[in-house]
Design brief:
Elements: E1 4-15, E2 18-29, E3 33-37, H1 44-51, E4 59-64, E5 67-68, H2 73-79, E6 80-83, H3 95-105, H4 110-123, H5 139-151, E7 157-161, H6 169-184, E8 188-193, H7 196-202, E9 205-210, E10 213-218, H8 220-225, E11 231-235, H9 239-249, E12 253-255, E13 260-264, H10 269-281, E14 288-292, H11 296-304
Parallel strand pairs: 3-8, 3-9, 6-7, 7-8
Antiparallel strand pairs: 1-2, 1-4, 4-5, 9-10, 11-13, 11-14, 12-13
Helix pairs in contact: 3-4, 3-5, 5-6
Bound molecules: adenosine-5'-diphosphate.
Keywords: Antibiotic resistance, ATP-binding, Cell membrane, Membrane, Nucleotide-binding, Translocase, Transport
GO biological process, one term: daunorubicin transport
Subcellular location: Cell membrane
Length: 313
């Protein structure tokens, strides 16, 4: 078995009376994308701050890259990169200067530092912007610069704290490509997000954090399987067709006003084909249909009894 890139046991943290992390146990395998998912205020940023040695836990064990964060913080820092809310980008420097500064901080020899900076500018599509002050960068450029700065130190583990909060859909998709390309190099990614779809798209494993506790952990498929609720909704032209369909299929819930029939389904092609074959056989016309497969919103609702909809920061 390979060693976990990140491992916590009984991790806890409070601010005054407020318990922010309440005994969190988690393991992140090397080379995987792990997403810590939770609404605003769940404790995600606090978790990242502890794992990346920025603040200390009150209790529990935390190992990152094989080192104890409390006893060997320097060894942890040498192995990780952090981007996101504590971005190191200096607005008054150009993109290139920011990268050079990182190369100096990592004590890279001058020639190697220049090579690495040039390669990163190229790779992260910042060549044209290299000479502009970071203050003038767009949100997407800024995050690319932030990630490029992290990569100067060649980290084995990267923490991405809400990397797409506030980005438009196009920049969000671009960021997803970036995360996948980082993972393809074998870097372990610890990603926090409030977006269910993002965790679903990117993560090998997801943990749901709610009020400082992990309420579920697994692959996206495992989490979705926890939650029933997949169904097909069929709409008919008139009440006769609706009732005939109900009689023919022998299952489902009727909505007479909307002329719809909701049938439990895994949304798979085979079950859909069977369904339509039976309706076709009786010449029952379907006007419209939609397939609902359970998503992570359903998971959150099922596990917490409330939807994951809280105000944006
Ligand atoms: P998230 O990143 O999931 O939105 P945070 O980790 O930022 O959550 O915050 C979790 C809770 O801890 C929030 O209620 C927040 O107000 C509180 N908190 C975070 N940092 C501090 C601090 N330095 N002092 C007091 N309370 C804090």
């Amino acid at each position: 078995m390979t060693e976990s890139a990140i491992e916590t046991a009984g991790l806890s943290k409070s601010y005054g009376d407020k318990v922010v992390l309440d005994g969190v146990d988690l393991q992140v395998a090397e080379g995987t994308i792990f997403s810590l998912l939770g609404p605003n205020g769940a404790g995600k940023t606090t978790m990242v701050q502890i794992l990346s040695t920025l603040i200390r836990a009150d209790g529990g064990q935390v190992r990152v890259a094989g080192h104890d964060v409390a006893r060997e913080p320097d060894a942890v820092r040498a192995a990780i990169g952090v981007t996101g809310q504590f971005s190191a980008v200096d607005n008054l420097l150009t993109g290139e200067e920011n990268l050079r500064l990182m190369a100096d901080l990592h004590h890279l020899p001058r020639a190697e530092g220049r090579r690495r900076v040039a390669a990163l500018l190229e790779e992260w599509d910042l060549v044209d912007a290299a000479g502009k002050m970071a203050a003038a960068y767009s949100g997407g450029m800024r995050r690319r610069l932030d990630i490029a700065m992290t990569l100067v130190g060649d980290p084995r583990i990267i923490f991405l704290d809400e990397p797409t909060t506030g980005l438009d859909p196009r920049s969000r998709r671009a960021m997803w490509r970036i995360v996948r390309s980082l993972a393809a190099r074998g870097v372990t990614i610890f990603l926090t997000t409030q977006y269910l779809e993002e965790a679903d798209q990117l993560a090998d494993r997801i943990a749901l954090l709610d009020h400082g506790r992990l309420i579920a952990e697994g692959t996206p498929q495992e989490l979705k399987r926890l939650v029933p609720g997949g169904h097909i909704r069929l709409t008919f032209a008139d009440p006769d067709a609706l009732r005939s369909a109900m009689a023919a299929l022998g299952t489902g819930s009727l909505d007479e006003d909307a002329l719809t029939l909701r049938i439990p389904s895994d949304g798979g092609v085979r079950s859909m084909r069977d369904l339509f074959a039976r309706l076709d056989h009786l010449s029952i016309e379907v006007e419209a249909m939609s397939v609902h497969t359970p998503d992570l919103d359903d998971v959150f609702l099922t596990l917490t009894g409330r939807p994951d909809k809280e105000p944006q920061r």
